[in-house]
């Protein structure tokens, strides 16, 4: 059983985000009137109250601003996922407004720390679902390693 999943029925405000993920593109929402970035998505702007949401493609990079590694499960259904690194990523290009909760790709959990640069990678977690996940962005020079590949999603 794969428990990683997005909402079974995205709401009207978040549907464009989930549709873009299925195309392996990371997008963010901003106000078409005042330009303010916002997350989570919503119909009206909290700054100017306009109802002009605009979706824009983002570079897919960011910085970890929060990290925790879950090492013990209270439910056996989750035990196969441990250790599970959960990260909060402040997405570049959104003036700090978009912070996604996600996880690192397998094998990178020991490197999950605040301030580490990451890049999006899209992972198919079910036959009908692709989710944004993250990988350490070695191309940023954070740890002196050489680049391991493109910052963009594979195939893009």
Automatic annotation (TrEMBL):
Alphabetized InterPro entries for the sequence: ChsH2_C (IPR002878), ChsH2_Znr (IPR022002), NA-bd_OB-fold (IPR012340), Thioester_dehydratase-like (IPR052513)
Domain ChsH2 rubredoxin-like zinc ribbon: start-end pairs: 18-53
Domain ChsH2 C-terminal OB-fold: 55-122
Pfam families per UniProt: OB_ChsH2_C, zf-ChsH2
Superkingdom as given in the UniProt entry: Bacteria
Classification via PANTHER family: BLR3430 PROTEIN (PTHR34075:SF5)
Name of the protein in question: OB-fold domain-containing protein
Native organism: Leifsonia kafniensis
